[in-house]
Amino acid sequence: MQKKHLILAVLVTAVWGLNFPITKLGLAAIDPLLLTALRFTLAALPWVFFVRRPQVAFQWLVAYGLIFGVAMWALINIGIEQGVPPGTAALLIQFSAFFTLGWGVLLFRESLSLGQVLGMVLAALGLFSIVQGSPGEATTVGFVLLMVSAFSWSVGNVIIKQSRVREMFAFVVWASLFPPIPLFLLTWLAHGAAPFTALATHVDRVTVFSLLFQVYAATHFCYWGWNLLLREYPVSRVAPLSLLIPVFGVIGSIVILGHRVDVSEGLSIALILSALSVGLIKGRPLFMGTTRPGQ
Questions:
Q1: pLDDT tens across 2-18, in order?
Q2: How far from 288 is each of 115, 136, 207, 214, CA to CA, in Å?
Q3: Which residues, 6 or more positions from 288, have their beta carbon under 8 angstroms from its beta carbon?
Q4: Residue 213's closest CA among 3, 17, 57?
Q5: How far, in Å, are 77, 117, 236, 239, 258 from residue 21 at the CA level?
Q6: 93 Cβ contact partners less than 8 Å away, ≥ 6 residues apart
Q7: Is 84 helix (H, G, I), strand (E, B) or coil?
Q8: Coil/strand/helix, residue 111
């Protein structure tokens, strides 16, 4: 990976990691579904009037928008609202790296090296250790929702590869058109008018900062950068880099929310860092994707 792309990857993972505790700040005042709807509304408008639609099939925009808006971030926000700590949420979402590596082998005939397999094992140990030692208020439903969102992210990565989109920023902007309507409807069906009427009285400067960070940093910048990396490199090369996200997420939780890291969590973070280091080591392929008929 080129140095400039590696720097971009670190910046993207840092912003995404910080986004988890910053999102927690917004959830203190806004319903999780409504917060997600507002995020993608601002990510799409007014930018779609100034950014040309990317040259991809319309269904790719719809599919990606619904997956990363509804099936991913809405579930992440609900999971955090259910009691999953932001640092733990940042860790659980990294199961997407394992799903993505599997998609790379199954769909794109990519190979897995011994280092990547060992990295997956180490990361799995670290992630399971975090879950086992998480605070009691983190509900089982919240954990399940985070796992579903991780799988959804991996499907979104596949869509980026399959669509062969080149205009990454335009793709993010136009895809953001599709999550708000179902999210607004789901908010109304779940809670009625209460979350909407509460906006005027509950929103403060911290909430506005949280929402704007989610829109312009975590959505516009991060998805542009991440999707650019997916365009330039195999998914099996990019996916392990997302394991840096929980490191920044935990650090952000310490600084922003006053979260304290115990010995167990510290060891788990060390395992994840080891997984990233091992997974980036080049080596001979251990597993190869199956060649499709006629190829």
A1: 888 889 999 999 999 99
A2: 14, 41, 47, 37
A3: 105, 109, 111
A4: 17
A5: 11, 30, 28, 22, 10
A6: 76, 146, 149, 150, 153, 245, 246
A7: coil
A8: strand
Q: What are the residue ranges spanned by the domains of the chain?
A: 3-286
Distances (CA, A) of 176 to 47, 74, 96, 211, 220: 10, 13, 21, 15, 10
Instruction: Determine the Cα angle at 236 with ends 57 and 22, to 5°.
Output: 80
Give the integer Cα–Cα distance in Å for 4 and 208: 32
Whether 26 contacts 210, CB under 8 Å: yes
Look up the pTM and report it. 0.81
Rounded to the nearest 10 degrees, what angle do helices 32-44 and 205-212 cross at? Answer: 60
C-alpha 27 chain-centroid distance: 17
Distance CA 51, CA 168 (A): 11
Phi, psi of 111, deg, nearest 5: -105, 155
Q: What is the mean pLDDT of the chain?
A: 83
Instruction: Tell how far CA 161 is from the center of its chain.
Output: 17
